[in-house]
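Fold tokens
===========
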Amino acid sequence: MQLNEIEFSSATPIDGYGPGFFRVGGQVFEGPVIVTETGARGWSGYQDQAPLEALAGQVDVIFFGTGVEIAPLPSGLRRELEEKGLGVEIMASDAACRTFNVLLSEGRRVAAALIPV
């Protein structure tokens, strides 16, 4: 089997995660975070919808990492984001990090909204 290293050109991938934190572009973020191709910023969680809605037109899909296990989003959040033209995919945070990185390496317009494990 041949392994190929993923190249991100100018995009910023998720480097790692652990209990209560994410590492993006070499910088550690404690708590929830929103990650796009240009980097990451802290996030207050599901009740903080404004930064998610601001991604409309910039990304096609947001991967929600809900922590250790898959969990539903708060009522209405998915509908509101989809009405703004954003795709929503829900998965555990580890899977959301991996999926984000793979699609980012393909040049896709993606974001991740992540709750720590």
Remarks:
- The CA atoms of residues 34 and 41 lie 6 Å apart.
- The chain has three helices and eight strands.
